[in-house]
Amino acid sequence: MPFLTIQEPRRNARAREGRHGHGSPASRPNRARKYDPREDARAPADVRISFARGVTCAGNGRARRVPGARRHGPTNKIPASREIAGSGDLVQIPPPPQACRDSGGSPPTPRALCANRRDRHSAKRLVRSREVAMAKKTVFISHVSTETELAQYLKRRFDKDFLGSLDVFVSSDQTTIGAGARWLDEVEKALKEADLQIVLCSKESVGRPWVNFEAGAVWLSGVPVVPACHSGMTPSDLPVPLSMLEAIQASDADDLRKLYSAIASVVDLQMPEVDLDAVASQVKAIEAQYARARETVERIEKPRILCAATEQYADPTYGFDRDVAVVEQAFPGQVLVEHRLTRSRLRDLLTSEQFDIIHLVLAVDERSGDIIFSPVDSSTLKPATPAPEKLSPSGFADLLVESRTRLVVLATCDALLLAVEVAGIANMAASDTTIFADAAVEWEECFYGLLRQGKSVFKAFDLAKSQTSAPMRHIRHRDVVFGPVQRAAVAQETS
Question: In 3D, which of 105, 103, 111 has the Cα closest to residue 40?
Fold first, then answer.
């Protein structure tokens, strides 16, 4: 930062002779000293910023008399905020506290500083930008994992078009949720802080309980919710309660204008000038990509299945033998059965072999989503040992990546928190409450029977839900078919 050279009057120098002595440099009259504007805590923000830009004193380094202003006497003080018109924009500011202490109690020295108009305006713009940064509004984009690309495209557009004045929360974006952060905690925090929620609505997503939960949580808090329909879904086709809201078509430029206007009203800014036709065209391109992906469903002709239970749940009273019978009937000769699953054994299996389907019968902590390998109390499902063996949801998801797993089935207890973490990696079927063996086996016979017929995972999910009363929930990631090509035509299954 440059310094300003300011000439001090003689009387101030004489006043310090008693403190410094005649031989000290500070006692010499007309001695110029350097003034660091950072010392002046009382100077206005725009004046301090002007100093940083290299503003110099008027004249040749000497304090200049301002027309219309008297000399600075003991009873004559000029306010710091006073502006005096002249050939330039002259601003009077008080001396720094240190100067007053050095002067031995004498009146402060006047300083006339010339700040050009451009620097002052730049300073004001900087102050305004800081105020905006401190009061950012949050837009929450709710979506399913298969619609991540559209959600992240909208986030990039909003960040660019609204000049960074928004915090756009997208749960699938790694910059939104930092490494090591608990996914559900961050989502819950963002829901509470949201000033506007955008729900991406497709025929696939509107039936998801998690999307409806997020929309309901925000709507009940009085925050505006805007359903954004895409990929064949229209506002008139929305189910309750989304149909009660004012929805838009994400691929329509006029509807996008309504969305941008709603966002602008939230951040209290004018609507930005954006080529919304181009935005709509990009949304249509993403919709076409989704359509191609639905037509090209992955097929695994000979899937490998891991059917495993902890030692406690392998006991006949929990009915694990019935689970094994159902899975082996659907995929004979392709199932590996584990009756004493431990954390280390699961890790060894998933890091050394590929399992397309993993069927688990064990306990899960409903509050954290941790998989529990140690014995649990059968009534409370709480660990029966002081230091239970557990595996976190993120740790389990990492193992699924190593094993390239496509489907996880867990039909024992409330495992939705675990399913939410798995959803970014694989499809998962899980209960939202404790489920008994008879209900679990009924659902498994229907679901695995449909897979054996060549139905896709999504189709089998939907049919099993309508045909049984088991409290099973389906967290979808990417559709897949298990079985030979001749069993079913992919296009028919996805129509």
Answer: 111
Helices (H), 65-174: 97-102, 117-134, 148-161
Q: 8: which DSSP letter?
A: P
Q: Dig out the tokens for 235 from the structure.
A: 């506002």
The set of residues, in sequence order, having a beta carbon less than 8 Å from that of 158 and lying 6+ positions away, is 139, 166, 168, 263
The pair of three-digit structure tokens given for residue 124, joined into one six-digit string: 């004001």
- Answer left, alpha or beta for residue 431, where phi above 0 means left and psi between -120 and 50 means alpha: beta
Residue 307: is it exposed, middle or buried by C-beta count within 10 angstroms (0-12/13-18/19+)? Answer: buried
Contact at 8 Å (CB) between 153 and 44? no
More confident residue, 282 or 183: 282
Are the C-beta atoms of residues 171 and 183 closer than 8 Å to each other? yes
Strand partners, 484: none
pLDDT confidence of residue 295: 74
Answer whether 0.70 is exceeded by the pTM: no
Distance of alpha carbon 373 from alpha carbon 370, whole angstroms: 10
User: Domains of the chain by range and CATH?
Assistant: 4-126 (no CATH), 136-295 (3.40.50.450), 298-494 (3.40.50)
Contact 290, 339 (CB under 8 A): no
